[in-house]
Amino acid sequence: MRAAYLLRRLLYSAVAFGISVTIMFVILRLMPGDYITLYLEGIYVIAPPEVVQAYNHAYGIDRPLIDQYFSYFLGILQGDWGYSLSYSRPVLDVISEKLVWTLVILLPATILSIIAGIAIGAYSGWRRGSKADVALLNGMIFLRAIPSYWLALMILLVFAFYLGLFPLGGYVSLSALDTGIDPLDVLNHAALPIFTLFLFSVTGTYYLMRNSMLMTAGEDYIVTARAKGLDDMTILRRHALKNAMLPMVTRVALQCAGMLTGSIFVETIFSWPGIGMLTFEALQVRDLPLLQGILLMDTLIVIVANIGADMIYPFVDPRVEVGNDARA
Amino acid sequence: MIDRRKPGIILLCCAVFFLACCVPASAAVPGDTDGDTLVSEGELSTAIQGYLNATYAGGSGGLDRAALSLAAHNTLNIPYGQIVVAVSGERDLLQPAYIDAKGVPEGSLIYEGLVTRTRDKGHIGWLATSWESSADGTTWTFHIPEGATWHDGEPVTASDVVFSYDYLKEKGLKNSGVLKHVTSVEPLDDTTVVYYCDCCMPLFPDILSTGPGVAIFPEHIWSAIENPAKQSDPEYIGSGPFKYVSSVSGDSYKLEAYRNYHGTLPYVDKVVRKLYSSQDTQILVLKQGKVDYVYDLAPATARSLQSEKGIGVTQIPAGGKAYEVAFTCDVYPANITGFRQALSHAVNRDRMCGQIDSLATEPTDTVFLVPSLAGDQVNEDTNGLYDYDLDKAKKMLADAGFTLKTEGGKNVLYGPDNTPVTITIPLGDKASINKVDEKIVLVLKEDWDAELGIRIEVENLQADSSAYKKRIGETAVHFDGMPGFFHDDISRLDNFQKSPRGHNYYHFDNATFNDLIDELSNTMDAVERQAIGDELQVILSEQVPCIPVCSMDSFNAYRSDRFAGFDDLILEGGGDINILSHIKPASTEVNR
């Protein structure tokens, strides 16, 4: 049953992916302007028409749109996501290289924010109305309200510039040019970006967990557990938390996908060479093939994250059986 | 009795202390006593004596051992130390497929072009030691030095120059458009190469060196590569003063002085370029001393650094953009010459400069060329003709058939067709950077709207570059913000020529002007060219297709406590390759 469901989901996801690719292809080509000319104007200031023509031909822009679409679609399926204008390399190569570095800061930040958000949110919801809850809630509201760019800059200023505890940017020290990349050096450089991303995302997890816990705390089985004489912490750990965490599964899956593009600010401020900074650079120089590839990758990740969330659910809540028809 | 002198003395000491702290510490090259950043043999000899005296004879002063070593390196022109340069984008780092992605000689320290350009429109030979042209400008001969080698030791010959041209054309690389008028390139011998062009090319060295220019690549490496755009170059073999050492993808790369360089060896041994994507971060690392040179700073940022100890700031006149109010000369009411002439007296440049940044802009009172760049190419007779005088503007509008009326307490200008004059000004593209166009339109509204009765409507197309480009051909007035070097030579007046390809930005079409441009393109003699340029500027002053507003300066900052010689070199121009080849280490701290 589960296998059949998985197959069905994969099929639907493939269709969703195909539709996304088509929409992206159409929208990006409906955008006004000739991106080859715009890109070449970054080199020539006024792009010579013969060079524009040569590049239109090289990149297949002068072919009929339907031709371009089928070539593009087939190329994607075969792993050819096009060629970056600014890097002069396959788009997939460029994205893969940058994705690794984004994951270096994204995964720890996401895991930490999930753990912290769940723990603090659960405690805050369980202790609703208490001084701790009020302090935490207001603290998170304040944190959420801070503009992300400003927060990243302040963290950089305080911890890297004034206190000198961490480097000001990049992912390695200059010594890497002589001795190669040292993982500890990378970790040292990643600390502030991870911390910043953590602060950005922990608030969302906290709110959701707190609200979920507020709803769970009022359930009958919690009252029953109390009536049985269990202490508060035991009820929280054994009954309330597990049930309150169910909505978090979807949240976590989508958060992982969402943070990928949300890391633009962090990566730019900390000069971290990930997908976020790649997107920023591609926008600056109008490297359309690269932007297209980044959007495609984002779409793929969201689809995979959704499937992943669906598949994880039964393990979190055995009552849920994916693929079961709701009718008896 | 109160000693009134005491507070005064205290104040004086505080002032001296304050001033001392505020004056940025600027290091001289150890041993250099005449301030020319070079340590002559005589100066080195004096420094050695001072050292020996201090070390062995109980004397005082003198350089320490490390500083003496630095002085000796300078005298003998042995590269020393390392400079770290901040770059803002990964496109400024080495790309694996460099030959396709890049190619601008002044932006590369590894690869050389034949020549590079200086600020006064002269050229310094890089790979070429000398060059000459035929009388008709269709043939250009370049001489490359004997004994020049690539970084792998192979000799650089004329064959490499020929190959670079053929390869660029055959493979359709990004810079191939630069050489569109070159029909062939032939070697005369191992060190002489000739470019044959299909038309007169009076500014051929310019074409080779700027916007974007071309570099020379080694035939023995690239001839074997079928698809250079897909080729990852692991070694970056060039002929420039620096050679590739190592790189960390997406972060930094290191070069070192090429000891067998055919020209003058750099004084700095190593150059590291490190990526700091945000300008805020670049300033912080400069202050922290992790980086020695940052460029393209915003004026306010640069000013904030001027009082920092150990940091020098260079302000390059007209190094940024040059702004103008441009007319579309075939759109009403800009199609009326009298209207354009009248409005040329209604542009308050001083106020506009004040709005943009009074300390970083210079009003331009010529007809197009920026004086600090074009120098004596500016026709003095056409300077200052567009003086700000609203009364004159009103009178000239009346002479052109426009009528100024007062309706409901407001001035309204009626055109010859008896309808109120309304002008739509699109905002976008290059003039929108730092919202310069918004600041210009603010001042224009005060004068054109309130005083002259011209209704101004603004269309914000900053997010849509293509729509903006289309719109400027439909509206009577728009703003332009091209780089300063687009206004630095009389050859740039071809911006106003109606070419066979169609309209220029201004839709300006003057038969005499068009013919003069053709004549200029086919004239080699500098005196004759200047005479034509003067005529062209007179036509522009009469026809007024545009009203120059101002030019903006550009700013760089560097560690003045570690390096000497930046200021003059930056102002000379020639890009990074000129600067980084000639600056001198001034502190032993750079030996890292």
UniProtKB/TrEMBL annotation, chain B:
InterPro entries xrefs: Peptide/Ni-bd, SBP_5, SBP_5_dom
Gene3D superfamilies cross-referenced by the UniProt entry: Dipeptide-binding Protein, Domain 3 (3.10.105.10), Periplasmic binding protein-like II (3.40.190.10)
Name of the protein in its database record: Peptide/nickel transport system transport
Organism of origin: Methanoculleus bourgensis (strain ATCC 43281 / DSM 3045 / OCM 15 / MS2)
Gene Ontology BP term (one): peptide transport
Domain Solute-binding protein family, first and last residues per copy: 125-500
MF terms (GO), sorted A to Z: peptide transmembrane transporter activity
PROSITE patterns in UniProt: PROKAR_LIPOPROTEIN
CC annotations in GO: ATP-binding cassette (ABC) transporter complex; periplasmic space
